[in-house]
Amino acid sequence: MNLKDKVVVVTGGGNGIGRGLCERFAKEGARAVVVADIEFDKAEEVAKSVQGIAIETDVSKEDDIKNVVTETLDKFGQIDLFCSNAGVGGGTGGAEIADEIWQRTWEINTLAHIYAARVVVPVMLERGEGYLLNTASAAGLLTEPRSSVYAVTKHAAVAFAEWLSINYHDKGIRVSCLCPQGVRTRLLLGEDGNDDNFLVAGSISVEEAADVVVKGLEEERFLILPHPEVGDYFRRRSDDHERWLRGMRRLRASID
Questions:
Q1: Which of 16, 55, 132, 178 is a Cys-bridge partner for 185, taking CB atoms 3.0 to 4.6 Å apart?
Q2: What is the DSSP letter of 93?
Q3: Active site residue 150
Q4: How do the pLDDT tens digits run along the chain, 256 residues long?
């Protein structure tokens, strides 16, 4: 996909990777960038900087996503690229994580992709073309050794993106799944900018992540990996799962 003159929607566009995507898409010549975020003040700030529009959106609510699509279509007549990008961490722990955290994380990290596809795919099928960019995580290909809820919901996000690609590619809809490792955002660093996360050492900026996304969209790659080493880790996992699990146990012990 060449982004020039395209109409793009980015959920979670007010912060982090979403902000970086909005800014980069504008530089690429997008006709319109729709910044959807639950933090409306942040969305407005980004929208002003890219001459786009901001829409207050809680992606865990299907009606909010429907509203984003409706408003975008009413104003611009089409959606060329829908970036289902918003996500949350979910906290650390295993099965003991509270039900309400599991539910909220599931809604934002997984169900939001389903809600988006439910409303956007029919519109794209009618046009005979369109592009979905779903942000998951390297944790969706590998794991997150400290957080069961993050690992599980991101695995589900990758699986759903795969399903979309299998079923709609031949009908004109392209699908990419963005799986970054450490990106210097609030999700990685926390509200206070802490640097004790083990992923900080190899982290990249949101601008660097956006560069890789643009290239990945141009090449229509399914997996977009801002950290190339994630592809190597993923292959090692597939080649020898037992060995990979032993390595992950060592990693988990080292970050306790």
A1: 16
A2: B
A3: yes
A4: 999 999 999 999 999 999 999 999 999 999 999 999 999 999 999 999 999 999 999 999 999 999 999 999 999 999 999 999 999 998 899 999 999 999 999 999 999 999 999 999 999 999 999 999 999 999 999 999 999 999 999 999 999 999 999 999 999 999 999 999 888 766 645 555 555 665 666 678 899 999 999 999 999 999 999 999 999 999 999 999 999 999 999 999 998 7
Fold of domain 7-254: Rossmann fold (3.40.50)
Domain boundaries, the chain: 7-254
Catalytic residue, candidates 131, 150, 168, 233: 150
Q: Cα-atom radius of gyration of the chain, to the nearest Å? A: 18
Strand order in the sheet with 173-178: 53-56, 32-37, 7-11, 81-84, 130-135, 173-178, 223-224
